[in-house]
Amino acid sequence: xxHSFKITALLLAMFxxxxxxxxxxxHAYAPITTEQTIxxxxxxxxxxxxxxxxxxxxxxxxxxxxxxxxxxxAIAVILxxxxxxxxxxxxxxxxxxxxxxxxxxxxxxxxLLQANILYSSLIALVIALPLSIVKVxxxxxxxxxxxxxxxxxxxxxxxxxxxxxWTVVLLLLVISIYDIYAVWHSGFMQKMAKYQIQKVRVFGGxxxxxxxxxxxxxMDKFRALNRKAKANSQKKIKVHVAILGGGDVVFPLIxxxxxxxxxxxxxxxxxxxxxxxxxxxLFWISQKGRFYPAMPFISAGCLLALGLVYILF
Length: 313
Fold this sequence. Notes:
Layout: H1 5-28, E1 32-38, E2 41-47, H2 66-85, H3 89-114, H4 120-138, H5 141-159, H6 165-185, H7 188-200, E3 205-210, H8 213-229, E4 240-245, H9 246-263, H10 265-285, H11 294-312
Antiparallel strand pairs: 1-2, 3-4
Helix pairs in contact: 1-3, 1-5, 1-9, 1-10, 3-4, 3-5, 4-5, 5-9, 6-9, 6-11, 9-10, 9-11, 10-11
């Protein structure tokens, strides 16, 4: 949907900032391999130091995880559809609360780890809890967007050890195809976003309400009439909303994180810039009042950037 320059710039800035902040969080959980002797055997043990039981198993093979992740995403989508059908808003809010708290804790813990603070995971959880409560149960727009910036790095840090560069590429392609179908054919994405905002009152993604010039003029007119009549009448005004789904933010960050561990920080930043430029292109060509699947554009930007990384590095 085409928005004003300020709204577009704000969404792009939040997207890019999340990508770059995410690289810092992901780097804090870089794999560390140590030798451990068990009986007569010496084993190489890899640890990412992820808190709250999110550390991946030792014997996991990243190349075999793509199907498991796709199936898990499909099950989550089906479960959300069922919960929407039976109007289980309370259960969804509790689910969101748990996921948000863990993701926030992981991201905040990354900063505390870098500062060598003792009991960092516990302190991070104490900080994350009130933020999650405000976000889920009190609905503050500033807290919502600020916490979104920290949620996706935490989620990405969990998935990155499970994937390789090429499994992420395949995942991006699958998600892009699903996004096209869900937005342009089934309309599921629009329905889910509307349900989250209006019923669950928790939206997974950046959420920026704005007022166009026509609506603002109408508001000024009602204010003037109220002052003249010395009244305080109430009238509902339709406010437009610019949204960017959480999946559009976290999937390119996952690729950037995997590239970070394989190639280094500069190639990872190139991936993030490629995704941001692609999203900016989508905003530029979009038309007012229409919904667009962002993932095909973001994935294309990621793949072009990945090709550049392989050429240069």
